[in-house]
Design brief:
Elements: H1 6-13, E1 18-19, E2 21-26, E3 32-37, E4 41-45, E5 48-55, H2 61-66, E6 69-74, H3 80-85, E7 99-101, E8 107-109, E9 114-126, E10 129-141, E11 148-151, E12 154-157
This protein binds flavin mononucleotide.
Length: 162
């Protein structure tokens, strides 16, 4: 074993298949921000808690790193375009998509199979990322559409159960 270079690490991490989410929040001026994140994970059932990590390279990093609340939207296999849109820096990501501000003051995107609204309860620096831990304060299960998957730097869909 040698000390891995970043390309090898990226490739190694890519062996772990994940779902794909869009995390949204508002900045200090109440403007909606959002980014695609595959680092989402459920953590605790009681109380309900989740985590995800925001990369320091992201243009919205400072906003997410300090946000008091965030919403996580799980994407369906038909939402690859939406995933790419929220991974594209420098565009108005919310322009032309169906979304609304929730009663908890979080931007909520329509037509995602599942959406969680969370209070940020903890933040941890972890290398070039910040891990954000949220307590779930709102759950919206909308459909059983199959999920969008991310594996080996590419999108996939479920091939069926084993
Ligand atoms: C499928 C997918 C998953 C991603 N997951 C994360 C993530 O968990 N955390 C993160 O900070 N960025 C993640 N990104 C990257 C951001 O969505 C976004 O592309 C990036 O922050 C934009 O800034 P940059 O292109 O200047 O790096 C992901 C991108 C894609 C396409």
């Amino acid at each position: 074993m040698t000390t891995p270079d970043s390309e090898t690490v990226r490739k190694a991490f890519g062996h772990f298949a994940t779902g794909v989410t869009i995390v949204t929040a508002i900045d200090n001026d109440g403007k909606s921000v959002g980014m695609t994140a595959s680092s989402f994970n459920s953590v605790s059932l009681d109380p309900p808690m989740v985590l995800w990590s925001a990369g320091a390279q992201a243009p919205e990093f400072e906003i997410f790193a300090l946000c008091q609340k965030f919403a996580v939207h799980v994407l369906s296999a038909s939402q690859m375009e939406l995933s790419n849109r929220f991974a594209t820096p420098g565009i108005d990501k919310f322009d032309g998509i169906d979304w609304q501000m929730s009663s908890l003051q979080l931007p909520v995107i329509a037509e995602c199979p599942m959406c969680l609204q969370c209070d940020t309860v903890d933040r941890h620096d972890a290398g070039d990322h910040k891990i954000l831990i949220g307590r779930v304060i709102g759950v919206d299960i909308r459909s059983d559409e199959p999920p969008l998957l991310y594996y080996g730097s590419a999108y996939h869909q479920l091939g069926g159960s084993l």
